[in-house]
Design brief:
about 150 residues, mainly alpha, about 70% helix
Length: about 150
């Protein structure tokens, strides 16, 4: 593959293609696949912590699931999609900032759904997750793993 045929990372990201990108050849699709997989992991953690902590502590359940899912997602995106190097702490901070935005929106909507609308916790969370996934996609694509031209490629 010549240099101009190589898949280009979106939004100024730099780095060698991750293993998934070499198979998929489109970083947007690879991002969505990892995001979908991590959404399933996040749902698993939410269900697990809900079983452990119970329905009445749904915001604590959400927080515990969030921490586990974010750490997992960060590793997956860095390893299999973006393949950026350096700036580990900065990337993790940016990654968490995007995820905290999603978490705050999630917590607010989940509180309204459960407390105000008296909807069941788990179905409410699954519906809300679909919306927060979009927020995460655009935030990570354009902010979390962004590299400037002066930072160079790996």
């Amino acid at each position: 593959m010549t240099n101009h045929d190589a898949p280009r990372p979106p939004a100024g990201m730099a780095g060698t293609p991750g293993p998934l990108l070499r198979l998929i050849r489109d970083q947007r699709i690879a991002f969505l696949l990892v995001g979908g997989f991590n959404t399933a992991i996040g749902a698993f953690f939410f269900i697990l912590f809900q079983l452990i902590l119970g329905d009445s502590r749904y915001l604590l359940v959400l927080l515990c699931a969030h921490i586990c899912a974010v750490l997992c997602a960060f590793v997956l995106y860095r390893r299999f999609v973006f393949r950026v190097r350096g700036h580990l702490a900065r990337d993790l901070a940016r990654f968490e900032l995007v995820n905290l935005t999603s978490l705050l929106i999630n917590a607010a909507l989940l509180t309204v759904a459960v407390s105000a609308l008296t909807l069941p916790v788990l179905p409410s969370q699954l519906v809300i997750t679909a919306g927060t996934m979009l927020i995460s996609f655009f935030g990570h694509r354009g902010f979390s793993f962004r590299r400037t031209a002066t930072e160079g490629k790996v």
